[in-house]
TrEMBL record:
InterPro entries: NDP_pyrophosphatase, NUDIX_hydrolase-like_dom_sf, NUDIX_hydrolase_dom. GO terms for biological process: nucleoside phosphate metabolic process; ribose phosphate metabolic process. This is Uridine diphosphate glucose pyrophosphatase NUDT14. Its main location: cytoplasm. Homodimer. One of its GO terms (molecular function) is UDP-sugar diphosphatase activity.
Length: 231
């Protein structure tokens, strides 16, 4: 049964705090000027951490394990679509009031378990194992991971690299509830997608999801599904 996209356990109140064009510990905004085919070009870009993502398949229940979470950037894109007047004036004073707030659900996305690469003393595999435990509650070892591939993400703005892994888990490997780290402000819901419904889910545009979900489900159908025991 496909998940419902109508519920998320909080609401957006009537005030957007404002827009801030600043860098942070996770994002560094930059601008480059260079000659490209004899033409002077200017590009804005962001320097962000590389990342890992993990396609998790629970063999006990024949389902994929995803995470669902609120993404402010997705929400703000929907706000601009429905309230374009808020973005016409770049003055923060005119940006603060939202008379008709959209429901939080419009900013919720289904994603693979993922995390940034910000621990230089750990390998990509070790970081991936930590993320699976923190976000989804499964205790996996490095040897449980299979690297699928790596690729560039956000090439127009960030150019960061993401490495995609595959992990098979069982119910016995689940040692916690997951949900991310509350002290870091993470609010993550673990979602299971039955294998039999996975491709229908992947192409259901009413359920917002990342390209990684669609790609990894397709990879699974090509590389793993044909080897599964037939019922």
């Amino acid at each position: 049964m496909l998940p419902q996209f109508l519920y998320f356990p909080f609401a957006i109140r009537d005030r957007i705090l404002g827009k801030m064009n600043v860098s942070s510990d996770l994002i560094r905004l930059s601008c480059s000027i260079c000659a490209y085919n004899g033409t002077k070009k200017t590009w804005d870009f962001m320097k962000i951490h590389d990342s890992v993502s993990i396609l998790i398949f629970n063999t006990s229940r024949q389902c994929f394990v995803l995470v669902k979470q609120f993404r402010p950037a997705v929400y703000m894109c929907e706000v601009e679509k429905h309230h374009p007047q808020l973005f016409q004036n770049r003055d923060n004073e005119s940006f603060s009031r939202l008379e008709d707030p959209l429901p939080a659900a419009v900013g919720v996305t289904y994603e693979l378990c993922s995390g940034i690469v910000d621990k230089p003393d750990l390998s990509l595999e070790e970081i991936a194992c930590e993320e699976v435990l923190e976000e989804c509650g499964y205790d996996v070892a490095v040897t449980d991971l299979r690297k699928i591939t790596s690729y560039r993400s956000g090439v127009g703005v960030t150019g960061s690299s993401q490495t995609l892994f595959y992990a098979e888990v069982t119910d016995q490997m689940r040692t916690g509830e997951g949900g991310g780290q509350a002290e870091e402000g993470e609010l993550i819901e673990v979602v299971e997608i039955p294998l039999e419904d996975s491709m229908k889910f992947a192409y259901n545009e009413t359920l917002q999801k990342t390209m990684g979900v669609i790609f990894s489900f397709t990879w699974f159908q090509d590389n793993i599904a044909p080897k599964l025991p037939k019922n």
